[in-house]
Amino acid sequence: MKHILITLLVACATFLVGTAQQSEALPGAWHTQQGSIQQTAVFVDGYLSHSVFDVKNKKFISTRGGTYTTENGKLAVTWQYDTEKAADEPSNDTWVGTTSTFDISVGRKLITNLPGSSTSWQRVDSNDGAMAGVWRISGRKQGDNISKMALGDRRTLKILSGTRFQWVAINIKTGEFSGTGGGSYTFENGKYTENIEFFSRDNDRVGASLTFDGEIDNGSWHHSGLSSTGNPIYEIWTKLAE
Fold this sequence. Notes:
- The chain has helices at residues 2-25, 83-88, and strands spanning 28-34, 37-44, 47-54, 59-71, 74-82, 99-106, 109-112, 119-125, 133-142, 145-148, 154-160, 164-171, 177-188, 191-199, 209-217, 220-226, 232-239.
- The protein is mostly beta strands.
């Protein structure tokens, strides 16, 4: 009887360690591709952004995201934005804040039915780097003054892994979606460079690179240069705390 009890305890401990290791292994950026259609999934600070796009044909297809948890081989996502639902059901916000559950297995590859069927994903990065996190715009410089922006239902976020970036302009209460863009980025010697792979408002932006001055000062990201439209900007971004 004692031997059986020890065996059960070891099996339980092994399962719990395995589950914890999978949860710890998930954060970062993942990629899968079929033909020219690419998908990325970024898991950072309890937030997921899943995007579908075609770089070759300069086509943005969809994006969705929100907060997530993992437990016992399941990924639970509580949606804050979804371009397909926002387009198909513009007057129906009942999907906002709902939770969907997906199968998930994390090892050298990520296996999940997040795209609708079980799909294998390759790791891109593990959120290494000072910029990894979910940032929200919290201020803009106008002349010599900084105009502060309170956090509300309507917000602009930048979701960064170690190498991937995406901005989204959303309303987490109504599901309204105003735009997104994303791709890869570098941050070296005070220069932050975005390489655009999808842009919902203008597909012609795909392939462009934008470089900004950037620094982290007391936990805030100061971001200045010229926007994608060529206008000068000076923005302050703060890590999302909720």
